[in-house]
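## Example pair
The file below holds two records. Each record gives the amino-acid sequence first, followed by its structure token line.
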Amino acid sequence: MKFRRFSPESAPVVSKRFLVGVAVVAGASLLGYLLAAVVLFPAPITDSTTPVPSVLGQPYASAEATLQAAGFRVRREAEVPHPTALGGVVIWQDPPADMQLPASAVVRLTVSTGPESSVVPDVVNLNLELARAVISEAGFRVGGVDSVASLSTPGTVLATRPGIGVVRRPGDTVTLVVSRGPADIQVPALKGLTRDQAAARLEAVGLLVGYVRYGDVAGARPGVVLEQRPAPGVRLPRRSRVDLTLARIP
């Protein structure tokens, strides 16, 4: 039996034309893959988005300028009442602040028209404490309490300022006018009395000492009453006050 010795010359030779064909097919496949990736799944070469600035609480004109300076378009979407924001202030933005958006994207703004208006409620003939509660419930604040002589029970509300039914914004003040009771006490004469004597005489009839000031009158005894307001004989409701002017004490 004869054996054939292996030698490099006896190995099959791959054709150069075959290798060139394989390279061409592989290159075409790679190129096709790259083209498909670019066309079907495009990706930006650089980041072209910008964060939306916060404009909440700004006047609309200022908010608009801020957004336009950042490259966005602005749309005034709505105007609605707000319990605390002043009219013309931005209370909502869409999209919200810090969201990344492309240039020229639209940012919608909602603007406050201010608090809704309310009418002053009718609290006449209510007692003072109940009237305060009703005024507060209506969204107002009691700004002060004035009292006048009246046949109504002391402490009864006689009127409001502004008047009943007047339109005001929530948070505005309303002054209550209440009864001090009937003016049935006659003011006694106090001139020439000391402060303590004048106070005792007033208290004896149901009145009180009010504001006390001092003046200079030649020959007057220091500390005695020189003048009084109201004058003697005027009728006042119970617990009203009488102002005194006393001679200055050296």
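Second record, same layout:
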Amino acid sequence: MSENTENKTEVPSDPNAWVPNFTLPKDAEGRSVLVAACPPEEEYKKVKLKKKPKTVAVVDEDSCVGCEYCVHVCPIPNCLALVSTESNNPQIETLCVVNEDTCIACRACETACPYDAIHVVKREEIDLWKHSVNLPKLAVNE
């Protein structure tokens, strides 16, 4: 029996390059994940970053209605996930969450969101932007 072995040439990788972890967002733990960003492999393999971005996408949980637009335009696997909400609002059953470890701050989700619920902000300001009640304070401080 002979085995077919293909000669695969591996591209040497930069040991200092930032390698994202393609797991689901931490905020999705313990919730029902309905859909997650899943672009074609040839698309996200093009993304090469030397270091982790200083900014990240943040979903305003008060404005997100779970419409899925952002999930479908995201170029990174599992960067965005649509999960069941913990709120008591019967009209909104889902919420989008961002994987801060994977997000490259490309702004595709921010542009696609029709409800202005996603903002790309500095990593240190993530908690400030998660609820729209804080937005007037942020606008005054800028």
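Notes on the second record: The beta strands are 33-36, 55-59, 80-84, 94-98, 118-122. Residues 28-131 form a domain with the Alpha-Beta Plaits fold (CATH 3.30.70.20).
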